[in-house]
Amino acid sequence: MATTPKTQSSAGTTLEIATGAPATFDATGFAAQTYTKVGKLKNLGPFGKTFSLITSEYLDQRGKEKRKGTYDAGSLPVTLDLNGSAGQNAMEDANDSDDDFSFRVTFQDGTAYYVRGIVTEFMKNVGGPNQMIEGTCKLELQSFTDGTDEFASIKVPVV
Predict the structure, then answer these.
(1) According to the CATH classification, is domain 14-54+65-156 in 2.60.120.330?
(2) Distance, CA of 41 to CA of 13 (rounded, Å)
(3) Count of beta carbons in the 10 Å neighbourhood of residue 74
């Protein structure tokens, strides 16, 4: 009997930021960086690469041909309650920098995704009297290469 993989809750997911580039653009290089946890994380949006669509239409056929073109490594929207933690301060500082940063997203089961990108937004939302002061951030993710292959992210599954 086949077993069905378990789904998991988003609770327990963390986001961390590291300055500088890894020594090598593989799981070992990313893991060796020093990461700072971004605190009071409320929501992480979807992330992953999206391919451009190339289409061609021919007179002698009714069906349209489709192929994958280049890909965009995507973006990662982040919502948090502001608390001035070291990780939040690093995100705000990254917003003022043109440099790429490393990020690690870790799910509650320990699966980690390493991505590279720039912080293009760090907004504060005061809101009303019965809500926390929020921050919204946006990471624009970059593809990277290990010298042979090109990646949008590196997944390190739980062993």
Answers:
(1) no
(2) 9
(3) 20
Contacts of 138 (CB under 8 A, 6+ apart): 75, 76, 77, 78, 119, 120, 121
Residues facing residue 135 across a β-bridge: 80, 124
Measured CA to CA, the distance from residue 45 to residue 8 in angstroms comes to 16
User: d(Cα 21, Cα 129) in Å, to the nearest integer?
Assistant: 41
Q: For residues 104 and 19, what is the distance between their CA atoms, to the nearest angstrom?
A: 12
Q: What is the mean pLDDT of the chain?
A: 95
Q: What is the pTM of this model?
A: 0.92
The answer to whether the CB of 74 falls within 8 A of the CB of 51 is: no
Residues 128-157 have pLDDT tens digits of 999 999 999 999 999 999 989 999 999 999
**% of the chain with per-residue pLDDT over 90:** 92
The torsion defined by the Cα of 52, 118, 41 and 25, in degrees rounded to 10, comes to 80
